[in-house]
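ARCHIVE CARD
Drawer: 12
Card no.: 0347
Subject: one protein chain, sequence and derived structure
Cross-reference: see card 0346
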Amino acid sequence: MAKILLVDDRPENLLTLEAILEPLGQTLLYAKSGEDALRQLLRHDIAVILLDVQMPGLDGFETASLIKQRERTTHVPIIFVTAISTDEEQVFRGYSAGAVDYVFKPFNPDVLRSKVSVFIELHEKNQQLRRQAEQLKEQELAEVRRESEERYRFLAESQPDQIWTAQPNGELDYVNQRALDYFDLPFGELVQSGWTQVTHPEDLGRTLARWQASLDTGRPYENELRLRRAVDGAFRWHLTRAMPMTARDGSVVKWFGSNTDIHDQKRAEEGQRFLVEAGAALAASLDYRQTLAAVAKLAVPRIADWARVDVIDDGELRTVAVEHVDPRKVELAWELAKRYQERGDATQGPPKVLRTGQSELAAEIGEEQLAELATDDLHLGLVRELGLQSYMCVPLATRGAVLGVISFVSAESGRRYGPEDLALAEELARRAGTAVENAQLYRQVEERAQAARVLETVGDGVILVDDAGVVRLWNHAAETITGIPRKQIVERRLAEQLPGWERVATRTETLPFERDGDEHWVSISAVEFDEGVVYAFHDITEERVLEQMRQDLVATVSHELRTPLAAIYGSAITLNRGDVELQQDITEKLLNVIVEESARLTTIVNDLLLASQLDVGRLEAKIESCDARVLSESVVEAARTHLPEGIRVELGAIADEVPAVAADEAQLRQVLDNLLDNAIKYSPAGGDVELSVVATEGAVRFAVADVGLGIPPAEQSRIFDKFYRLDPDMTGGIGGTGLGLYIARELVRRVNGRIWVEPNNGRGSIFYVEVPAAAVGEKPLLKAGAHP
């Protein structure tokens, strides 16, 4: 039924129109305003509109104008029904607004019904025409679709790929003849089972998951999988793609897919990838047996189900590696290799490849080949259990000699080897042979490099001089000992750089040379060979210095000991003479000499013993809190008891805030006594010696200053060395063992302190001793070892 829209703001007018139009038997819709009429038009397909002109809000003219502006309602006929003036201007305005008729009240009901009937009939005919047009369009679309499907099938059947289509739910509904031939399955069976029964088991899970993801999302599908070929049962790699055809709402209408054979490309890519990985494995070790075993392990299951490596060992071919994915089968293969060793004159297998140096390929391993391989029925049965299907064996050659062979066997996978597989295996063997050869060369180079590294790292200098006297090798130690850079002496004559060295015979000699203006000594020996002479030498400068120091020590100690001993001995002899009666004052004087010289002798011996204890680390320091002020005063008072004439020892100002120090009080006293004694001893012309104390950050600093002989800058770094004396020849009359400052340095170091010397404004020296301050409330409970 058609729908008639009645628009009037007065209910009684709507009832009147309803009564007039009811006999038509159509659906009547009502609107009390222009706005309401517009809403009705949005919801319904209207055949004709009866529109009142005079309405509040939007009047009839405005409403009609808006209706005609809308594309959906512009064709709906409008009849104005009005009781207002029949002025021509109003009628013209109504027609201008889009009306098809203008009816004035009062009107004849039959006439109105007739007019409305005409528009209803027109509407129904239009509807019929639209339906016919749609049917015609559907027929045309069906024909186009049929033609399109025929063209698609023609294209699909002419393609070299497997072409297929699927319903939106993923079920196959078409596969081309190439797919049917490949799988050798009837159309109904292939469509019903899909790809599940022809897909490799290892790829099936991934394939189903990706296909389901595309079905869920409507996104294109792409996957690489192996499909079984019916003719030989081999699985070949295919690239599968599917694109969805979607409706306007985005829903999938159909899937169009293809399976492209990429097996050869995939095998080539895998072969190249395998060669790259094998190259890395070959370069991973210098042990070629271990390297070849790693390659066999890498080959399974990439290019083979079995991989075996045999090498020449003591003239016989021995298996060094066997690989299979199943460890139990590997054990069986090893057992077979031990029980049934292959004959050297075998007409197939590794012995033949070893003899001829030519590769061997068996695309199919038949029963005759197995029987020839086996030595008895038991052996044949065991070999059959291995399930060998296809085989290739390639020689492993280095520099023209065959080192061994590598065998690859296909079994469970059903793979059949061809010329391309053999080429891959030969390339692998070639790279393996190169790796073995490189390993051998590397080992030789490494041995030479190791010898060169030894020469570079040994402490002795090594020189290689050719038969023309030209330096060819000058190691790092030679450069360090002599101070002569390698580039300055290599390729030059040795006699020009180090005169006299070229005359060294095979026995060891000691030679001097000058370096940085100082004299150095080396112990050098030479070994002659066919191409020249190799010299080896080491620096003995410090040894000579030490030996000189020892000699000086012996002389010094002898002198230091002889003087008090002579005084003691002379005094004792004098006191022991019975033919001379000594006066009391002389006797006392002689006794005092014995006492003083004995004390001096004791000091020398104690210094020697203390230095020995410091050297072996047996001296402990009992660290405690010491009063720096009291200790300084005590040391100064002690020094004043035996001052030479013209020397004064003073205690400098000490601030009240100087903290206690953390040290061994007896050892610190010994250090300060020694410094004061040295300051007095090295002030032969007299002068003031001052001990001062100041607080520094976290430490207390003692300073002993004198105005004596001073210390030359070049000697300041050596005066703390053991046995070093500033006046070794005692030209200034100043003796000593050279142990005092060495002992002082070691004692200070053992309490985490430091000692150094500085000039005293051009006159004399200032020795500084810095010791850590003691913590507040610290008690003398800590013992420090010899090396804190």
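Annotation on reverse: The chain has a mean pLDDT of 81. The CA atoms of residues 658 and 695 lie 5 Å apart.
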